[in-house]
Amino acid sequence: DDGSSFAHNNLGLVLADHGALPEAVNEFRRAVQIDPAFVEAHTNLGNFLAQTGSREEAVAHLRQALQIDPMFANAHNTLGNILVDSGGLEEALQQFHTAIKINPDAAIFHYNLARTLAKKGDVQGAISHYHRALEIDPEDYDVRNNLGLLLLSQGKVDEAIEQFRHAIRVNPDYAKAYFNLGKIYDEQGRLDEAVENFEKALK
Fold this sequence. Notes:
There is one protein chain. The protein contains twelve helices and no strands. It is mainly alpha-helical. α8 runs antiparallel to α9.
């Protein structure tokens, strides 16, 4: 019954949170066996199958989810992530664009679209969607770090430094941003500041 399928899906999410992915996959399988039209469970099953290496089966469950409900944005986003990892960038871009059309205010969708555009070499498009993600969630230090790297690639060093510094203000233990600042200061001949940031990156 419906209640049982929800219980299996919820148990799957708890198990996944604790790193028990094979056990989580089994619970999501049980949920979709009980209710084959359970879109969220198909999406979760696809997500965690991909993480355990069963990419083709993962894609099949996500396409099934979208056949049942083409407006389920999370399924478009999850399918996009799997396609990026397997080199299907064009279809991945379509999936992220569709997810954003359905839910324009999900920062993670803009983040995923931005990193895929960057992989495609569309730096301006990527920068634009990282900015949109930050409008929605200004405290996302991963977005700020990625945006900083793209700004740096465009020669916008001061803007990049500001993004890395902001990332560190949000997360003072964020090694990637310290490392990126250290590299900039090293190139600028600011040795003391470079060493200070490299040391923080290593803590």
